[in-house]
Amino acid sequence: MGRIPSLGNLQDLYYLNLAGNNLGYNSTNDLEFLKSLVNCTKLKVLDLSSNSFGGHLPNSVRNLSTQLSQLYLGYNEIYGEIPEAIGNLVGLTVLSIHNTHIHGIIPTTFRKFTMLGVLALWGNKLSGKIAPFIGNLSQLFHLNLRANQFEGSIPPSIGNCQMLQHLDLSENNLTRTIPLELFNLTSLFYMDFSRNSLSGSIPDEVGNIHDIVLLDMSNNHISGHIPLGVGKCVMLEYLFLQWNSLKGIIPSSLASLKSIVLLDLSQNHLSGSIPTFLQNLSFLQHLNVSFNMLDGEVPTEGVFGNVSALVVTGNSKLCGGISKLHLPPCPVKSKKHAKNHRFRLIVVILSVAVFLIVLPSTFAIYWSMRKGKKTSFNSSTIDQLAKVSYQSLYNGTDGFSTTNLIGCGNFSSVYKGTLELQDRVVAVKVLNLQRKGAHKSFVAECNALKNIKHRNLVQILTCCSSTD
Questions:
Q1: Which part of the chain is CATH 3.30.200?
Q2: Separation of alpha carbons 424 and 246, rounded Å
């Protein structure tokens, strides 16, 4: 513990590192020695971090060398506001004033730091909005404002910092949605927005930051589905989405995350079953899907075989899994039930096939009658239709998931799907012939459609049938 004497006579001093000592008395004039450095015109690096310096950061900081490129003041007892005069240090490439007691706003003179690459102001009491001019710091590659009291929205201008690799805005009071511009920062490998009050959904553009290693959006008010674009982040190792309001199924695109080490989806409203592909992610060491609305059988291989690496509590409809999970056994499907289910499935598939075959026939006959031509509809027309398997329809609709259900009547349901080989969005209509009157409804619909011509009429693409 002690004071630093005057260093003004060291005119050739260019590197001063006093970090990690017990300098200073936590008093108001601890940093007055900075005035003596005015004669050190060659000073480039000044590191005073991890000491006991107290008091305000004096305006004399403006008199430091214009050659100064790195200034470290973190882990001290400094308080008060950051002086505007610090903007005179236009040559700074690193400015670190973290874990002190400074408060107030980020001075507007920071806009002069056009060469700044690292700005670390985390662990303070800074408040107000994050100034949009930060987007003008084009050389910035490390921005850490964690654990302050910033409020308002994240400025979209940060998307102009195309060299940004590390972005941490966690533990603040930020609100509204995450700007799309931030997902164009293709150099990012670390993004942490956790413990804020952000809302809206995660855009599919998240897939643009394909080199991201850590993505943390936990403890917010984010809603909607987990976007398929997450699967494009092939370098992702840590994904934290817990304590939000996400819904829907765990998307199959997560199977592409071959490098994933930790995946936390807990405390959301996710539904459906736990995908079996998760057990094939060889680097996955911790999986938390607790307190959702998941159901069905828990896999047993990979991460699911290690009870200390897996958390599934709070999902009352889960069953099976390894014995140490103490989940109830999954119900055994009887052969009779399986046969009945297969029979019903075949009836539905054949009904759809008949519907898709008859409808084009009706249109063909109608047009031939209008033109006065004698046209016969033969089997070659059907042969020209693209062949689509039931499995393709099942995959394209995520297993006829309720999230893809776009319409439901008394006798049929319509699902939105994607044909994988054609990369085409289609509507799949499934008739329920177990419902009384469904057959009559089918015939009536065919009779109506053969007399209708409208630009909004859905084009019949093909039919499918299967013994499965």
A1: 335-449
A2: 27
Task: Give the separation between CA 419 and CA 422, rounded to whole angstroms.
Answer: 5
H-helix or E-strand containing 176?
strand 173-176
Those residues whose C-beta lies under 8 Å from the C-beta of residue 261, and which sit 6 or more positions away, are 237, 238, 283, 284, 285, 286
Give the span between the Cα atoms of 217 and 154, in whole angstroms: 13
Coil, strand, or helix at residue 290?
coil
> H helices within 263-397, ranges in order?
335-370, 379-383, 390-396
E strand or H helix at 442: helix 438-449
pLDDT in tens, 315-370: 999 999 999 999 999 998 654 455 566 767 776 676 666 566 655 655 555 555 55
CB 103 within 8 A of CB 127: yes
Query: Where do you find CATH 3.80.10.10 in the chain?
Result: 15-255
Residues with Cβ within 8 Å of 341's Cβ and at least 6 positions away in sequence, in order, are: none
- Terminal Cα distance for the chain, rounded: 80
* pLDDT of amino acid 462: 64
The CATH number corresponding to 335-449 among 3.90.1150, 3.30.70, 3.30.450, 3.30.200 equals: 3.30.200
Asked whether 318 and 300 are in contact (CB, 8 A), the reply is no
- Condensed to tens digits (0 to 9), the pLDDT of residues 427-447 reads 877 776 666 565 556 556 655
Class assignment of domain 15-255? Answer: alpha beta
Give the pair of three-digit tokens for residue 165.
């690799």
Contact 231, 257 (CB under 8 A): yes
Distance CA 33, CA 338 (A): 84
pTM check: above 0.85: no
What pLDDT is stored for residue 46 in this prediction? 96
